[in-house]
Amino acid sequence: MIKRAQDSGWSTVPEDQYKNEPGTWMDVTRQVLFSSSNSAFETRYFNIAAGGYSSFERHQHEHCVIVLDGSGRVRLGNEWHEISARDVIHVEPGQPHQFLADSASSLGILCIVNRDRDRPELLGNDSPDRTS
Ligand code: MN
């Protein structure tokens, strides 16, 4: 199958607005670009608005993440790394991780995961503004 891009994105794909929960995640939307019962993996696009962030979490499934737009930081364990378009990030099984958009730029990432996966464990109240 081919899902055509529209308007520099995928305007026909529903966008889930995550409920904002300060301390866990803020200003994140998700579009499921590919998911099929015939496939072992799924591909999602997350957009994190400027200043927003994903939850600090851990799970046994892996992520392969590719930055498509904008810039920000990723936390892997206790280390923060600057990231921008076309960077590729592998989150290993059990590795604590969190994505954060820059204050002046949104961060758009593709995330490939196993279709069958364990639920994330949220890691405390480790708000990103306490670690910078
Ligand atoms: Mn994750």
Strand content: over 45%
The span between the termini is 42 Å
Mean pLDDT: 90
Sequence stretches where pLDDT stays below 50 over 5 or more residues? none
Order of helices and strands: EEEEEEEEEE
- Largest sheet features: 8 strands, antiparallel
Question: Structural class per helix/strand content?
Answer: mainly beta
Shape: globular
How many β-strand runs? 10
Descriptive overview:
The chain has strands spanning about 15, 25-35, 40-55, 55-60, 65-75, 80-85, 90, 95-100, 105-115, 120. It is mainly β and about 130 residues long. The strands form two sheets. Strands 1, 2, 3, 5, 6, 7, 8 and 9 form an eight-stranded antiparallel sheet that branches. A two-stranded antiparallel ribbon has the order 4-10. Strand 1 (about 15) and strand 2 (about 25-35) form a beta hairpin. The model has no long low-confidence stretch (mean pLDDT about 90). Bound molecules: manganese (II) ion (MN). The site of manganese (II) ion (MN) has 5 residues, from loops.
Which descriptors apply to this entry?
132 residues, mainly beta, eight-stranded antiparallel β-sheet, two-stranded antiparallel sheet, 10 strands, binds manganese (II) ion
Quick overview of this protein structure:
The chain has no helices and ten strands.
